[in-house]
User: Fold this.
Amino acid sequence: MESRRMPMRRPLDRRVGLGGAAYRLREARREDAADVVALFRAVLEEGRYFITEPGEYRGRAGEEARVILRYAGRDDGLYLVARREADGGLAGVCTVRAGHLRRTRHVGRLEVFVARQDRGRGLGRALLEAAVDWAEANPGMRKLSLAVFEDNARAVALYRSLGFEVEGRRVGEYQEADGRLRDDLIMARSVERRPRGEAAWGEGGG
Ligand SMILES: CC(C)(COP(=O)(O)OP(=O)(O)OC[C@H]1O[C@@H](n2cnc3c(N)ncnc32)[C@H](O)[C@@H]1OP(=O)(O)O)[C@@H](O)C(=O)NCCC(=O)NCCS
Assistant:
């Protein structure tokens, strides 16, 4: 177990040009924490995409910085951010966290969100592709899994296009303030093994 916690690889870092805008995708650093908390809160305030309501969110930069440091350079998790090259602003976040137990540590739980102004240009896809590349080059990862509201059409379509399939539906798992029940989908894909050192493992720079 301890060996999986040793820093073992070059950090993922790549530049992508999307619809006239350029972004830098790289692994998060401690100083990204406050922006991550602010962006996640802004997404929660849209009220549709995550189960936590804004008033329930207790995110703090200090705590998030500890999470970021926990995953930096490790094999059992990935914490990616995308920043706009134009103004340096945080445009997106994607995390993968492996289970902590021997029977669960081959599965990476994935989360992703993109700032409203940056959506629809392919940034979500670029973040997820980077996460899949990381997983494929990681000998410990055999499966990526996520949960998504069934009515989040954009996210579901994007996950499907990246090879995720619906493994199950939790009917009425969430209740809105007006009493309406919502389903979520469990989606997952297996991870094809790729030799370490190939492609995105430590690719890029800058
Ligand atoms: C889901 C999210 C991460 C996707 O990121 P994005 O940068 O907007 O997505 P992309 O531009 O990379 O790709 C979106 C894809 O969905 C498609 N799409 C957009 N709206 C759609 C819709 N209503 N129905 C179906 N497909 C749709 C796009 O055509 C695109 O597909 P393409 O690459 O084949 O053209 C982003 O929209 C987001 O942060 N949403 C709010 C938070 C969220 O829902 N997070 C996921 C929770 S599980």
Remarks:
- The chain has four helices and eight strands.
- Residues 2-190 form a domain with the Aminopeptidase fold (CATH 3.40.630.30).
- Confidence is low (pLDDT under 50) at residues 198-206.
